[in-house]
Task: structure prediction
Amino acid sequence: MTRLYAAACLIVVALSAPFWEVSAQEQPDSCVACHQNFGDDRLGKPVKEFASDIHSTRGFGCVACHGGDANDPGMGAMDRAKGYIGKPARKELAQLCGRCHSDARFMRQYNPSLRVDQVAEYYTSVHGQRLSRNGDEKVAVCVSCHPAHSIRPPSDPRSSIHPLKVAETCGRCHADAKTMEPYKIATDQLGKYRESIHWRTMSVKGDLSAPTCNDCHGNHGAAPPGMSWVGNVCGQCHTVMAEFFAQSRHAKVFAQMGVPGCATCHSNHDIKETGDAMVSLEQPGVCVGCHTNQDNGGKVALQMRAALDSLSGEYNKAHAILLQAERAGMEVSQAQFELNGAKDALVKGRAAVHTFSVEAISKETLPGLEIAKKAYARGLRVLDELEFRRKGLAVSLIIILALIVGVVLKIRQMERKKKAE
Amino acid sequence: MAADATKPRGKLWSWLDERVGLADLEKLAKKKQIPVHRHMVWYYLGGMTLFLFVIQVMSGILLLLYYRPSAEEAYESVQFLMAEVQFGWLVRSIHAWSSNLMIFTLFVHLFSVLMLKAYRPPREITWFSGMGLLGLALGFGFTGYLLPWNELAFFATKVGTEIPGVIPLVGPFFRRLLRGGDEVTGATLTRFYGIHVAILPALTMLALGLHLFMVQKHGMSTPPGVERQGGEKRVMPFFPNFFLRDLVGWLSAVAALAALAAYFPVELGQKADPFQPAPIGIKPEWYFMFMFQTLKYLPAEILWIEGEILGVLGFGLGGLFLLMVPFLDRRTARGEPSQLFAWIGIGIIGYILVLTYLGYTVSPTK
Result:
């Protein structure tokens, strides 16, 4: 079959020689000329796709990966003696790409900030390990995530590795039960991730810095984070919480129990938006999994929740009254600005939950309570002032109306008097 | 300077009369008479505008006690005035609302004079000084709008000062002169403040003095239609009969201002941040809306000339036309009926009303 294609290709090349001879001076790449004119989509597609590939835009042609001689207008272009390697084998791909991508001096000419350790990292990944040790060619290789002939930079929304596309790219294999069946790996990660707060932050709020697969698992060195690493992974973004947790009694207990730090309460792929309700001995609380209201931990949980509820309640009350005053046209922007201090305290108090210490939470929430109470008192005063204004207006209108009536009566009296004269 | 011998006066009257000439003033006030006819309601508009101007001056002086004219402090000083100073909210709200009412009554006054042809000889100078006062009032509005240094005012001023900049040759210079630089900055605020509280009031005093003098000299104009009807000419003494009627209008205006200030206190909004993008739907004050909306409808180019330039020149020529009406309307000057200028007046009023309506109802992106 291959010979038949080669013969057909040769005929097409020969027949079109008078035409491409002229254009060859402008476009000397015989690979493109032949693959474009052959008419077989399987041969033409790579050429079409490659036109917008980042390598093509930087001046690289087919021979950069496939070898051969693009200046040779005939079948000699695909001469193995000229380095032609045809379609690279999957197991050799990492080395092939690494010829350039692992060469710091070479890469510096095109993108000095691009890392050059992808190949080394790849061989530390589960994918790379299975490929090199077990010879498993079904595992992901470079082109699994960076489709050959249509590679685009991650900033390009059409790229398979754009933040919004990463989960889909990984999910092509990891959400496919048939592909994952030999590895006995769950395939619900993509579905769970798309229910998570991280995906919602990225896809709905448009915050591309929100984490996707590679932010926790790595990309070229992709592997499941070890149980003890989970905290480090989450701590890359949730720094304060990770520090609090590392110093808490739960860090040791969880380690002894052999359960991961963050994921025990927050789960992993389907991380939901957190809320004060999580600190509870009733569903959907997470403390209820280990504690009851009889044990010391359960009592601490209840106290922590009470501290948060207290500040959150006072904050909401103050916020509502200031909003009411603002909608009535009162100037409360300074009070609203000061109330932000209570909100900050609430945020800090919620972060301090990871210390599992009532004292640490109260240290944050008590100043916030003071601010919220002051703001609420301010709101009450402003509403009183509003009431005063309305009453003042009523009194003023009565006085003005009386004056108007007086002046009108005076005019009538004057004009009656003049008529009488 | 002796007082009217027929009228017994108190000691205080006599004391003051000897020093300031009260009897002369009384004679002057009694001499002034107001024609009585079916259109006389329009005579109240001038006095109402003057009354609102006096409120502007008084409330403005009170605002000066707290306002600090710099980009760093302007917003905070107004915020302090609104939230902390006793009745500060009332002073600012009355200042802002009475400015709007004043410009409204000024427009109605202008068009009533135009429609009743009160500009005809010998009142051309009264008309010119009145047009000058309209320009000054719009200047007060434009410069005062920026002073709280909030987001809306900042971006509206940015757009507003951009518009005269399109005038060929002098535009860029005029824009720099207005802004005190290439951009709207703290320098613009300080400049607008100076114009608002010193330059415009001084010019207004001159124009207003001239206007009132001319009104006093020539008296109220009787509309040509009423004059042509003939019959007995009825009049009313200005003082106290017309003055007391004026007073009823002024008291009603005070009541309206108090209600507006109590129920719709002027908002302050967000502090201006030059580094933020302009919010969607930036709008100028309502009295500039018809011009703003017209410029939005003009195509980018009309006959190889930039649409905006033509628009600005068009408004300039329109203003000049309105100013020169006493000289252009020759029929009215000769005492003949002149329907053309009445229809032109109706056309201008209709145009302003429709474009203003569209400015507030059409999507800001259209």
User: Anything to note?
Assistant: Strands of chain B lie at 33-35, 235-237, 301-302, 305-306.
